[in-house]
């Protein structure tokens, strides 16, 4: 028996990377999953990898657009009968020093991460409070705890997700809806492995466990927060960092 048997989850940014790893783990634990991403073809391909229409559905979703989020969540309810879990994971980077960063680069990152998470949290909570149950998992970042050079936009957005999650957790607790956040550190992905070797080595030197994390290791923590294993936890922030900046 899986930890998420009979549950339905919606995951933004679910076509690849951390989002797909979480979708994969959720399906393995018995959940039905609706994944939203900007690239519909890639999202459909991800659904095929997850096992097809019996266990997953694909939706083109721009998290900054309110109506797209409505469509994502409505698809979960209409296709699989409920919305039990929401994972706000979609994200982008537009790195630049504050001196050279454009206003557009700042706005894009804030919109996707912070406004997108607000849309997902708010709209999922509206459905879940009627059911008197639900778990929302918001993906922050270690950058939201310590601040990273070249990421005033990203660090601000990821710190904002922590504040948003805690405030929303207080509002929704008495409705049976739990809201928690995860702060991943250096996780192995196509994006991080494309870093210059010097930057990679510098980050590795900061990690007591002396290795990068795997997407599956973040997915395991998301599973914990999405399942009844964490039934008395809300408003918490779990770091998945190998001990970096503890």
UniProtKB/TrEMBL annotation:
Annotated keywords: Oxidoreductase
- Ketoreductase domain location is 7-190
The terms under GO molecular function for this entry are: 3-oxoacyl-[acyl-carrier-protein] reductase (NADPH) activity
Any idea of its EC number? 1.1.1.100
User: Which residues are in coiled coils?
Assistant: none
The record's listing under SMART domains reads: PKS_KR (SM00822)
Q: What's one Pfam family the UniProt record gives for this protein?
A: adh_short_C2
- Asked if the keyword Oxidoreductase belongs to this entry, the reply reads yes
Top-level taxon of the source organism: Bacteria
Family label: Belongs to the short-chain dehydrogenases/reductases (SDR) family.
NCBIfam families registered for this protein in UniProt:
PRK05653.1-3 (NF004198), PRK07231.1 (NF005559)
Instruction: Indicate what this protein is called per its UniProt record.
Output: 3-oxoacyl-ACP reductase FabG
Q: Which organism is it from?
A: Prauserella oleivorans
Which lineage? Answer: Bacteria, Bacillati, Actinomycetota, Actinomycetes, Pseudonocardiales
């Amino acid at each position: 028996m899986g930890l998420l048997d009979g549950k339905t989850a919606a995951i933004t940014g679910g076509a690849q990377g951390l989002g797909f790893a979480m979708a994969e783990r959720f399906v393995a634990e018995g959940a039905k999953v609706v994944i939203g991403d900007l690239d519909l073809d890639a999202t459909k391909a991800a659904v095929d990898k997850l096992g097809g229409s019996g266990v997953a559905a694909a939706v083109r979703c721009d998290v900054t657009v309110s109506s797209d989020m409505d469509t994502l969540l409505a698809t979960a309810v209409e296709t699989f009968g409920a919305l039990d879990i929401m994972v706000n994971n979609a994200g982008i980077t537009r790195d630049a020093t504050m001196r050279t960063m454009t206003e557009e680069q700042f706005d894009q990152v804030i919109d996707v991460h912070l406004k997108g998470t607000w849309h997902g949290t708010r709209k999922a909570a509206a459905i879940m409070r009627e059911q008197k149950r639900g778990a929302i998992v918001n993906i922050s970042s270690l950058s939201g705890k310590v601040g990273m050079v070249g990421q005033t936009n990203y660090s601000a957005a990821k710190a904002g997700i922590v504040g948003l999650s805690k405030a929303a957790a207080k509002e929704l607790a008495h409705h049976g809806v739990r809201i928690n956040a995860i702060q991943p550190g250096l996780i192995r992905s196509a994006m991080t492995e494309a870093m210059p070797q010097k930057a990679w080595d510098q980050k590795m030197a900061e990690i007591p466990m002396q290795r990068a994390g795997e997407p599956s290791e973040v997915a395991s923590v998301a599973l914990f927060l999405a399942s009844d294993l964490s039934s008395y936890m809300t408003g918490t922030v779990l770091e998945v960092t190998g001990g970096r900046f503890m």
